[in-house]
Design brief:
single chain; alpha/beta; Rossmann fold; nine-stranded mixed sheet; 9 strands
């Protein structure tokens, strides 16, 4: 499989235009359950084009975007240039280059499945302040939620270059072991993203497993998609936000209980079929 830090180099423009943001309710959840305030310092690891970082910047947080991919990082820098409370870092989950005990929250949006779990955990322990939090977030869809979601998955199963491998990375992502000996639960938010034909095409091509224009699967995939597309479509997404025990990795404290409008399920829900590259 292609080096995870290079997978999206040729997808940046489509990623910027067609990837959804994260529900603002994530902020409210973290305020209630984890004590997030505008004064909290955030390290957004695998920050990419800055989608998740911007959610916290709008909340007033100081955000350090840690991103190893040069093209994605440059796009994020451009997107977030208007925020004086944003700093861009050429680093990775396993080596952020950040100062010891310097952040209150570490976030990872659409990225944790690419991390080396043991090395990133050691790095997160190093840069977190005592009592800090690690929050893992994915936007993905469950294929059973609509005929369109199912058809979309069938398309990438048939034409994607390495969709099955990427899917295994996500489904096999061992969140429980990462947080052990503590436990975690997941808050789930539902939303939809409307697309016209060009939007759905761009969303598809923003995925790292989508064939590029010189690949033999590229044109057949678009032809197949055109035949199935209506003038306006909606993909139904689910945002999963994993909140841990307070991250003192060596001590098992009680799991947080997610309240409010959010349903709570055990963290092994990540093993359900999702698309979340």
């Amino acid at each position: 499989m292609l080096d995870p830090t290079k997978r999206f180099s040729n997808r940046v423009e489509d990623y910027i235009k067609y990837r959804p943001s994260y529900p603002p309710d994530v902020i409210g959840l973290l305020e209630v359950e984890c004590g997030l305030t505008p004064a909290s310092v955030i390290a957004d690891v695998g920050s990419g084009t800055g989608i998740l970082s911007e959610l916290f910047l709008k909340h007033g947080n100081r955000v350090f975007g840690v991103e190893p991919n040069r093209e994605m990082r440059a796009a994020g820098d451009k997107r977030l240039a208007k925020y004086s409370n944003f700093s861009s870092i050429d680093g990775a989950a396993e080596a952020t280059t950040m100062v010891n005990t310097s952040v209150d929250f570490i976030t990872a949006g659409q990225a944790f499945h690419w991390f080396d779990c043991q090395r990133s955990r050691a790095e997160f322990e190093r840069i977190l302040k005592p009592g800090g939090w690690v929050v893992l977030i994915w936007n993905g869809f469950r294929v059973e939620t609509s005929p369109l979601n199912n058809a979309y998955q069938q398309l990438v199963l048939e034409y994607g270059t390495d969709y099955q491998e990427v899917r295994r990375e996500i489904i096999g992502c061992d969140v429980e072991s990462f947080y052990a000996p503590g436990v975690c639960q997941v808050a789930r938010f539902e939303f939809q993203q409307p697309f016209d034909f060009e939007g759905l095409k761009g969303r598809l091509l923003s995925s790292s497993y989508a064939p590029e224009p010189d690949h033999p699967h590229y044109q057949p995939m678009l032809t197949r998609k055109t035949a199935r597309s209506s003038s306006t479509t909606r993909l139904s997404f689910t945002t999963d936000s994993f909140q841990p025990d307070r991250i003192r990795f060596a001590a098992a404290t009680p799991a947080i209980i997610v309240r409010s409008r959010v349903s709570v399920v055990h963290s092994d829900c990540i093993r359900e079929p999702i698309e979340g590259d």
